[in-house]
Amino acid sequence: MRIAEFQKLIHDRYYATDSARGAGKTFLWFAEEFGELAHALGKFERGEPDPANLREEFADCLAWMCTLANIAGVDLEEAIREKYLQSGGPKGTK
Q: Do residues 8 and 77 make contact, with C-beta atoms less than 8 angstroms apart?
């Protein structure tokens, strides 16, 4: 599945509710998902991994990122292409 296909899936399922909630409140949901991912990664780091939960939290974070992009009218696939593939991508290290 391409990023654009996933973003459309999220749009088709959730856009009406998410856009009515607005970007600010939706971002709070997104932040909560990051907290859940942080907790899952903490378990991983402590040697107590829960692979199914870790996959779920990564998927949730990506879904909420798509939700925010949909509300803001951002095509994530195009944004990634512009930032990371055109002109040799960003300079420096992360």
A: no
